[in-house]
């Protein structure tokens, strides 16, 4: 059974200007005397005759011409009727015009019109602008690996080594010796959505760095391909095209918290009193255990890492601030009861305690240490979740309220109380709060107005334990005690997908990025729902 007391819930440069396109056909042979006579005669005829009359006269004149001259005249007329404005314009102007078209038209119909149009429609500069104007990001540093290696397997091994180096570079040889041995966890080809996959183990042997192609030159980013992959990735989210991978015994006990960062580093905290550091492989089907941290005497209920700093909160009534460069506890902050949630940034550390009080430490900019604590009171039962954005702290409590606090003035500036039962979780991006409650609902709040913008009634069949959202992706992802993970539209509140059988018990925490959802559960498992399967560059997308 779940220990309820333990849980505590109550730029690229544009191409050079193109030269104007040459005439499509050679002009008619010119004669100076003809030119001198033709212009005034044409003007007089236009003044004396209607357009229809001029047309009939032109047809009569053409009919009287020799065949070879007639063919040349008709080719000239055809060129006048078919002006290739895109091919004739400077490249910068042509590209600006094409930007107004849907990308599917640029890649399809526009590119098929002519060679000139295709040359413009495939310009990397155009596709880079289209990519970035949609707010999409690419890890361009890692693109170098794709240029240096020829075989996909070599690329995968190189990325794995790079990610592992990023995740584990903080550990010195001396401290690494005190950590649990690393193991590699691999699932063959992966399990389809909803099916189980068993945990394997073995000694972790970092892959040998493959040799780059000899004489390999730098290969620029294929922005058109990147746009197509991102478009497909969004379609995979929309259509639930994914693979599910699960590791059954990532810890010896229930896993309460996790964090996934941009370097494929995964941190998990458990009822077994430990924090584990993992590397998530590029393909999503491999999980490498890099380290185990021992420092708490109770369940690890909450954690956050940023750079070399890791903060963890526990049912042992302490917060441990770790220096990941030495795997040592740099600070231990005492509390009167279980620490249920915490958040820190470059200015503050805020904790939520079971004693109903929020505690805040100021961060020393020189040393990074947390000092000068103060308390914020106002909740009447346990504070279940907190989130920081700049100087604004938001908190959720079992007293059914969400409060926003200005840490500079140490005052409560907003109280939201539309939930009818305790609020278990929240996420905050500086403008919007998304909250989940034991009333089974998810609510979206605008902090500026204090209004509840949307209510997703009966979002789950049980307590909503974890939520996260991304406005750029237009998604909310939630996990519940009903053992499901659900994806919603942020803008409409519509249910997009329901993932069953990812876990066999309560979902305690989840996180997601552009390509995957990572979750943990009371059943001791870690699961990954991978939307980037089959997209070779998906992990480069941010």
From TrEMBL:
<dbReference type="InterPro" id="IPR019775">
    <property type="entry name" value="WD40_repeat_CS"/>
</dbReference>
<feature type="repeat" description="WD">
    <location>
        <begin position="293"/>
        <end position="332"/>
    </location>
</feature>
<feature type="repeat" description="WD">
    <location>
        <begin position="376"/>
        <end position="415"/>
    </location>
</feature>
<feature type="repeat" description="WD">
    <location>
        <begin position="248"/>
        <end position="280"/>
    </location>
</feature>
<dbReference type="InterPro" id="IPR001680">
    <property type="entry name" value="WD40_rpt"/>
</dbReference>
<dbReference type="Pfam" id="PF00400">
    <property type="entry name" value="WD40"/>
</dbReference>
<dbReference type="InterPro" id="IPR001810">
    <property type="entry name" value="F-box_dom"/>
</dbReference>
<feature type="domain" description="F-box">
    <location>
        <begin position="83"/>
        <end position="130"/>
    </location>
</feature>
<keyword id="KW-0853">WD repeat</keyword>
<feature type="repeat" description="WD">
    <location>
        <begin position="416"/>
        <end position="455"/>
    </location>
</feature>
<dbReference type="InterPro" id="IPR020472">
    <property type="entry name" value="WD40_PAC1"/>
</dbReference>
<feature type="repeat" description="WD">
    <location>
        <begin position="457"/>
        <end position="498"/>
    </location>
</feature>
<protein>
    <recommendedName>
        <fullName>F-box domain-containing protein</fullName>
    </recommendedName>
</protein>
<dbReference type="InterPro" id="IPR036322">
    <property type="entry name" value="WD40_repeat_dom_sf"/>
</dbReference>
<dbReference type="Pfam" id="PF12937">
    <property type="entry name" value="F-box-like"/>
</dbReference>
<dbReference type="InterPro" id="IPR036047">
    <property type="entry name" value="F-box-like_dom_sf"/>
</dbReference>
<keyword id="KW-0677">Repeat</keyword>
<dbReference type="InterPro" id="IPR015943">
    <property type="entry name" value="WD40/YVTN_repeat-like_dom_sf"/>
</dbReference>
């Amino acid at each position: 059974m779940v220990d309820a007391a333990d849980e505590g819930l109550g730029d690229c440069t544009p191409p050079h200007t193109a030269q104007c396109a040459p005439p499509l056909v050679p002009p008619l042979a010119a004669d100076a005397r003809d030119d001198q006579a033709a212009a005034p005669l044409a003007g007089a005829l236009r003044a004396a005759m209607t357009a229809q009359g001029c047309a009939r006269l032109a047809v009569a004149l053409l009919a009287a011409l020799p065949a070879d001259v007639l063919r040349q005249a008709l080719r000239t007329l055809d060129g006048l009727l078919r002006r290739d404005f895109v091919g004739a314009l400077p490249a910068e102007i042509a590209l600006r015009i094409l930007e107004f078209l849907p990308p599917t038209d640029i890649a399809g119909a526009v590119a098929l019109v002519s060679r000139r149009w295709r040359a413009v429609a495939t310009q990397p500069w155009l596709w880079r602008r289209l990519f970035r104007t949609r707010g999409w990001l690419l890890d361009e540093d890692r693109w170098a690996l794709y240029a240096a290696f020829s075989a996909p397997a070599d690329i995968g091994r190189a990325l794995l080594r790079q990610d592992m180096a990023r995740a584990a570079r903080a550990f010195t040889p001396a401290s690494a010796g005190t950590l649990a041995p690393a193991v590699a966890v691999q699932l063959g080809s992966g399990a389809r959505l909803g099916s189980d996959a068993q945990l394997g183990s073995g000694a972790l042997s970092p892959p040998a760095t493959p040799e780059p192609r000899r004489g390999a030159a730098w290969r620029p980013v294929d922005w058109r391909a990147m746009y197509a992959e991102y478009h497909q990735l969004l379609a995979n989210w929309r259509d639930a095209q994914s693979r599910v991978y699960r590791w059954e015994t990532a810890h010896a006990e229930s896993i309460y918290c996790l964090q996934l960062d941009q370097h494929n580093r995964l941190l998990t905290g458990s009822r077994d009193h430990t924090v584990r550091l993992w590397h998530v492989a590029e393909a999503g089907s491999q999980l490498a255990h890099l380290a185990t941290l021992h420092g708490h005497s109770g369940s690890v209920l909450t954690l956050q890492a940023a750079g070399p700093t890791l903060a963890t909160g526990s049912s042992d009534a302490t917060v441990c601030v770790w220096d990941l460069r030495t795997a040592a506890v740099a600070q231990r902050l005492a509390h009167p009861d279980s620490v249920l949630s915490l958040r820190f940034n470059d200015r503050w550390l805020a904790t939520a305690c079971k004693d109903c009080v929020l505690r805040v430490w100021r961060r020393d900019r020189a040393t990074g240490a947390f000092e000068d604590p103060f308390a914020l009171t106002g909740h009447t039962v346990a504070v279940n979740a907190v989130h920081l954005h700049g100087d604004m702290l938001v908190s959720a409590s079992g007293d059914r309220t969400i409060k926003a606090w200005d840490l500079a003035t140490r005052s409560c500036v907003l109280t939201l109380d539309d939930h009818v039962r305790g609020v278990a979780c929240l996420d905050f991006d500086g403008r919007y709060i998304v909250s989940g409650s034991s009333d089974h609902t998810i609510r979206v709040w605008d902090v500026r107005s204090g209004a509840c913008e949307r209510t997703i009634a009966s979002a789950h069949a049980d307590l909503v334990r974890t939520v996260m959202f991304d406005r750029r992706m237009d998604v909310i992802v939630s996990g519940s005690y009903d053992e499901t993970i659900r994806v919603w539209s942020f803008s409409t509140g519509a249910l997009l997908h329901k993932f069953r059988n990812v876990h066999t018990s309560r979902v305690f925490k989840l996180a997601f990025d552009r390509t995957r959802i990572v979750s943990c559960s009371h059943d001791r498992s870690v699961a990954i729902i991978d939307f980037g399967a089959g997209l070779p560059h998906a992990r480069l997308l941010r």
